[in-house]
Write a structure and sequence with these properties.
Chain A is of the alpha/beta class and about 300 residues long. Chain A contains 10 helices and 14 strands. With about 550 residues, chain B is α/β, with parallel strands linked by helices. Classes of the chains: A alpha/beta (about 300), B alpha/beta (about 550). The interface of A and B includes residues 76 and 99 of A.
Chain lengths: ~300, ~550
């Protein structure tokens, strides 16, 4: 044990929803975060050849500091191993099998060596309705979605607007988690997955880091000086579609790491010496107005 | 050459079902017959140590796991009496108080005050309305850390010393570490992620399951039960050469008294093509006592854990009247045929764990699809557990050339729970339908799934013959099978499913001289006494292997 605890992100969803694509994107654009990624099939890890440092039977090491581990020894044994050397990476990502239930795996986030990260469950816009109605796997897909902090609707480029709306409505029967949607190439994956706000982990400076792209919008709000309970109360009335918020808040009680992970709020104390940051909020474009009104409420209340 | 005389030799071979002696040379059977007949082969030493014993083919346990041996490094506290590798019988603990009493006794004998106390086998399903909690274990010790693994393997209970040492009462409550009305952790730790919260205890327990001593204990337990061929059905990562070396070293030791067939589980593996190549390559590492080359799929969970996948009408509602959901897939149903096809096309044998009947449907669909694309004679793919397999499924299995390995021991260990709690009286009476399987012409074996239930083919056979539960009910009298059918299933039936029936499983010229040595004749006794027949030990490759305390 090194004493260091790193965030644990779980990526779930049935077959063909883009879990491996997401893993490959994360590994290729890391923002400096050293990910340890646990995958069912190392052979499906596909990154630029120049990133490959070494390839072994149960492990791939990348030149950007990331590590891919096979689950060949079983999740339990791999987690024991990782917990013993958390100084070698910044964040653990577990890619589940197509029938894996995210909840029991996400609970490793409270085991020694780890802190909870995001539980992302992916659903494909062109298949989720059929999957949910499938007599064999419908209940499994439903339980997977119910465990999500944040649902990611992928393959939206393969359906029309009406099709995407039907998919969203089907997902909404399973969970009250927000749904992030968009062509997978354009979603801000690292901003969604990365647990540490800039300045806490290995990430870059805030100014470089507020992501932008088609389909989503970001805000940076300074909430320093406020009581942490006030910050929590304000977060609890956020627009329902906020995907992610994170920052090191210089609260009246001292610095706190504040996170919104889909439907979940996580607040923990940060070291006294931690540099504080604005709270960065990521949400879909269409809630931009609601987001501004919510931020105005904070400002007006101060 | 050596002749073993016996009260009777039951061969499981139709050409000569019984005899009075067997002639052995160089580890193989030369002939069975009368003493006079055997002397026709020339000079032979007569060994009459089994003159009052009964010889059967060595039993074949075609579904077991090596952790059966590993768990005996720790204190047993399950509900049923259970025999340890030295032959000592640990009485079952029938209440929380008896569990505590057992642990108090063991704790008093521990020298190192800092060593944790590990126990296993606890099954709260037998203590309705009462659960073992930290407060009970605190009566054993307030200072020594105590970790009690439940029989399901899905949860453990710890004492307050563990809760305090691991800081489990700090921070917000969460699902892996449930809390009581007082806001304190109850002591239960759920699933691996919860058990891992007990610091070093869970890794230590987990790794002890695969210790060298555990593997040796697995062999001892097998010999003491009359088994000469065991399986480790997909519970060991065979891709790891160090693991294979350990098994090789232990099984090469002449004192290790049993053969083991090690199945590869694709859950331990990367890339289907690589796995196929690995399993094919591993065959070359096989020895007389250590076999590789077969594959185990695990497709669903267990019925008593409500995680097996069931056809309608599914599980009974909870005692409170709430509907229960269906169980868990461990492999996406859409991927079963693809995985099967890869191993099947390479000529490999696949055994698939299917507890629920919906799971059997998925596997049979996959088999039919794969066999249509890639017909292969004599594949012997096997449905493992078959607990809820129905008559129509057995008929389809017959047509597809599949074998059944039925979890007969369940009738005793969880029969009353299936009747009352999981599936109700009707389906409970149909469970583990050995008679229906035989009637449909499906090749049959039966198993213990050790360490889920103890190794003991005579007990397995007793269950299938009598179908009696601990409460005394006969659960499904029409699915009972005869003693000869049951004994055939745990000898030749197992050998056939392991593709070893040309070597073991019956006693006839040319086969390995592997025998179970029994104190009584199971064909002559009251069938209700079948599980009580004493086991002297075994003969492996012609060499007597006495059980502990026998010689």
């Amino acid at each position: 044990m090194t004493g260091r605890r790193v965030p644990l992100t779980v990526i779930g969803g049935y077959l063909g929803v883009g879990k491996t694509t997401l893993v490959n994107r994360l590994l290729s654009a890391t923002n400096g975060t050293r990910y340890a990624v646990l995958v069912n099939d190392l052979g499906a890890v596909n990154v630029d050849a120049e990133l490959l440092e070494s390839t072994g039977a149960d492990r791939i090491v990348l030149s950007n500091g990331c590590l891919c581990c096979s689950l060949a020894d079983g999740l339990t044994e791999v987690m024991f191993d990782l917990a013993d050397r958390t100084d070698e990476f910044d964040h653990v990502v577990i890619e589940l099998s197509g029938v894996g239930l995210p909840g029991p795996v996400a609970r490793w986030g409270r085991a020694p060596g780890f802190v909870p990260g995001t539980t992302l469950v992916l659903a494909a816009a062109d298949s989720v309705v059929d999957r949910l109605a499938d007599p064999l796997v419908g209940d499994t897909v439903r339980r997977q979605l119910a465990d999500a902090d944040l649902v990611v609707l992928t393959r939206t480029d393969l359906v029309d607007t009406a099709g995407a709306a039907v998919a969203r409505a089907a997902i909404a029967t399973t969970t009250d988690a927000p749904i992030a949607a968009g062509p997978s190439a354009e979603l801000p994956w690292s901003a969604i997955v990365e647990a540490a706000p800039p300045g806490v982990g290995a990430g870059s400076e805030v100014s470089d880091h507020v992501p932008a792209g088609p389909g989503f919008t970001t805000r940076a709000i300074d909430v320093s000086g406020a009581g942490i309970d006030d910050v929590r109360a304000w977060l609890e009335v956020r627009p329902a579609d906020v995907w992610r918020a994170k920052g090191v808040v210089g609260a009246a009680e001292g610095p706190h790491i504040v996170q919104v992970v889909g439907r979940r709020i996580e607040i923990s104390t940060a070291p006294e010496s931690a540099a504080t940051t604005p709270l960065v909020v990521i949400a879909p474009d269409e809630v931009g107005d609601a987001l501004d009104q919510w931020i105005d409420r904070w400002t007006a209340g101060r | 050459m050596k002749i073993f005389t016996a009260r009777a030799v039951h061969t499981m071979d139709r050409g000569r079902p019984s005899a009075e002696a067997v002639l052995v040379d160089d580890g193989l059977v030369v002939a069975v017959g009368t003493l006079d007949e055997l002397r026709a082969h020339g000079e032979a030493e007569v060994d009459d140590r089994f003159a009052d014993k009964v010889l059967l083919p060595g039993f074949v346990e075609a579904h077991s796991h090596s952790f059966e041996g590993g768990q005996w490094a720790h204190t047993y506290c399950g509900w049923f009496d259970r025999t340890d590798p030295t032959g000592h019988v640990w009485p079952g603990c029938h209440s929380i108080d008896e569990v505590v009493t057992r642990l108090v006794e063991v704790e008093a004998g521990m020298d190192d005050p800092s060593a944790p106390l590990f126990a296993w086998g606890l099954d709260p399903i037998y203590f309705p309305g009462d659960r073992l909690e930290a407060r009970h274990l605190d009566a054993v010790s307030e200072r020594r850390r105590i970790f009690v693994m439940h029989a399901s393997g899905h949860l453990a209970t710890v004492n307050t010393a563990v809760i305090d040492a691991a800081g489990l009462a700090d921070g917000p409550a969460d699902e892996a570490v449930p809390r009581g009305a007082d806001g304190r952790p109850t002591g239960e730790l759920l699933e691996p992620a919860g058990m891992a919260r007990a610091g070093d205890l869970f890794p230590s327990y987990y790794r002890s399951m695969a210790s060298d001593d555990g593997i040796r204990a697995f062999g001892q337990l097998a010999r003491n039960a009359g088994i000469t061929t065991l399986t480790d059905l997909g519970s060991t990562n065979l891709a790891n050469p160090k693991v294979r070396q350990r098994w090789r070293t232990i099984t090469d030791d002449p004192t290790f008294p049993v053969r083991v067939s090690m199945f590869h589980n694709p859950a331990f593996g990367q890339g289907l093509d690589e796995q196929v190549d690995m399993v094919v390559g591993l065959r070359d590492e096989s020895t007389d006592k250590l076999r590789y080359g077969h594959v185990k799929f695990i497709l669903d969970g267990s019925i008593q854990g409500f995680t097996a996948r069931l056809r309608a009408p599914g599980y009974l509602p909870t005692p409170g009247g709430e509907a229960r959901g269906n169980g868990l897939w461990l492999v996406p149903p859409d991927e079963v045929a693809g995985r099967l096809e890869a191993f099947h096309r390479a000529g490999l044998l696949v055994h698939a764990h299917c507890n629920g009947d919906e799971t059997v449907d998925v596997f049979l669909d996959a088999v039919e699809q794969v066999l249509t694309a890639a017909p292969r004679p004599d594949h012997r793919h096997t449905v493992q557990h078959c607990q809820l397999t129905t008559a129509d499924q057995y008929r389809r299995m017959r047509a597809l050339g599949l074998c059944a390995n039925v979890f007969a021991n369940h009738t005793w260990y969880w029969g009353d729970q299936h009747h009352d709690v999981t599936v109700g009286p009707d389906r409970a009476k149909r469970m583990n339908a050995a008679a229906t399987a035989l009637g449909a012409g499906v090749p049959l074996s039966m198993h213990s799934d050790a360490g889920v239930t103890p190794l003991g083919p005579l007990h397995v056979a007793w269950c299938a013959v009598n179908r009696v539960t601990p409460s005394g009910r006969v659960l499904g009298a029409d699915e009972r099978i005869s003693v000869p059918e049951a004994l055939a299933a745990v000898t030749l039936g197992g050998a056939y499913q392991l593709k070893m029936d040309h070597e073991i499983g019956s006693i006839r010229p040319g086969l390995r001289a592997d025998f179970a040595v029994l104190d009584d004749d199971p064909f002559e006794i009251d069938p209700m006494a079948l599980r009580d027949v004493g086991v002297w030990g075994t003969v492996l490759s012609g060499v007597p292997q006495p059980a502990d305390g026998r010689a």
